[in-house]
Amino acid sequence: LAKTTQPISMDSYEGQEVNITCSHNNIATNDYITWYQQFPSQGPRFIIQGYKTKVTNEVASLFIPADRKSSTLSLPRVSLSDTAVYYCLVAETGRRALTFGSGTRLQVQP
Amino acid sequence: EAGVVQSPRYKIIEKKQPVAFWCNPISGHNTLYWYRQNLGQGPELLIRYENEEAVDDSQLPKDRFSAERLKGVDSTLKIQPAELGDSAVYLCASSLDLGTNIQYFGAGTRLSVL
Predict the structure, then answer these.
(1) Confidence of residue A2 (pLDDT cuts 50, 70, 90)
(2) Fewest CB atoms within 10 A around its CB: which of B30, B52, B69, B97?
(3) DSSP class of residue A81?
(4) Rounded to the nearest 5 degrees, what angle is found at the Cα of A102, between the Cα atoms of A100 and A107?
(5) Burial zone of B107 (CB within 10 Å; 0-12 exposed, 13-18 middle, 19+ buried)
(6) Which tens digit of pLDDT belongs to each residue from A60-91?
(7) How far apart are CA B56 and CA B49, in angstroms?
């Protein structure tokens, strides 16, 4: 199975904007890009979903270029509670498999 | 509204013993997923149900793993016999719509095989 690619880890400080990019070269034409957040000892939690261009909700923004082969999750003004693992999820062409990447471990420091 | 409920939260067994995990999805969610998550890795899909039909079980090790979703609501995942390498967190998720992939996860069952 082709995998999504994300940075393994990122560090930030409180109040900064954090951008996490996911590469997904084999995304299917009709599929969405979905990002999840996971804290220790919990299941992943839905953050945001998009198909193209830009989507914004109360916690994050999602930027998707025209070719849709990548996406960027933007977290404005992070706090300590944003320390977590972030996953992007897409379905793969021809299989509709659901593949979580290895995730990006975000560490926010004071 | 209650979320996805899984039980037990923790299970410790000896190798070669059987084990079962239970999941109650969010009411009205037709699609149910079982994932396995190893330490430091993302969740790996084991099986996906659309109502009571398993529509994707290609990643389920069928020699020892089985799952069922009777009446299209609750689901049970079983391992028999368990092996040391089965130690992981088993996550259940449900969604309204197979297409948009917005899934709601339970807290998971942490399995330790000794």
Answers:
(1) very low
(2) B97
(3) G
(4) 120
(5) middle
(6) 999 999 999 999 999 999 999 999 999 998 87
(7) 7
